[in-house]
Amino acid sequence: MPVLKEKIKICDRLEIFKNGALIDTIDDLITTAGLDWIISRLRGLSSAASHVAVGSGQTAPALADEALQSELARVPLSIPGGQQTGNVIVFEADFPAGVGTGTIYEVGLFTADTGGILIARNAKGPYKKDPADAITTRLTITISNAE
Q1: Which of 7, 84, 115, 119 is deepest in the core (most CB within 10 A)?
Q2: Assign residue 19 a region: left if phi > 0, alpha if psi is -120 to 50, beta otherwise?
Q3: pTM for the predicted model, two decimal places
């Protein structure tokens, strides 16, 4: 009897909106801890993604990252646990006026309001956020068959 081997592909995309307008779309990095988190979630053993943080660190993302380099602010997801449609899950968070003000270079998806597992991280920027600006982050994770 032949053995069926399936390969999967995980894609992570970050969109950043400033005052309602899309300003950037970037491929994100799922960390090693993030991959472990996905497996734990499949087993029902890990807490859900719950927060997004922005920071001013400019170090390139690495698989071993466990935190942002220099966190400015962290907010809860707009929909706790994200919004799933088929093999896609979207994690969206709003940084209203006065929250996360400064020059943003990094964005991270976490499982807690402090500490927690850093599931995904991006460091591109700069995105200038003045005190009156609102920023929305949308992280989309897609799991599909690798071809």
Answers
A1: 119
A2: left
A3: 0.90
Tokens of 43: 């087993």
Residue with token string 């929305």? 136
pLDDT tens sequence for the chain (147 residues): 666 667 778 888 999 999 999 999 999 889 999 888 888 887 877 889 999 999 999 999 999 999 999 999 999 999 988 999 998 999 999 999 999 999 999 999 999 999 999 999 999 989 999 999 999 999 999 988 876
φ, ψ of residue 139 to 5 degrees: the values are -105, 125
What's the per-residue H, E or C state across 79-91? CCCCEEECCEEEE
**Cβ contacts of 61-64, under 8 Å, gap ≥ 24:** 61/28, 61/29, 61/31, 61/106, 61/121, 61/122, 61/123, 62/29, 62/31, 63/29, 63/31, 63/32, 64/31, 64/32
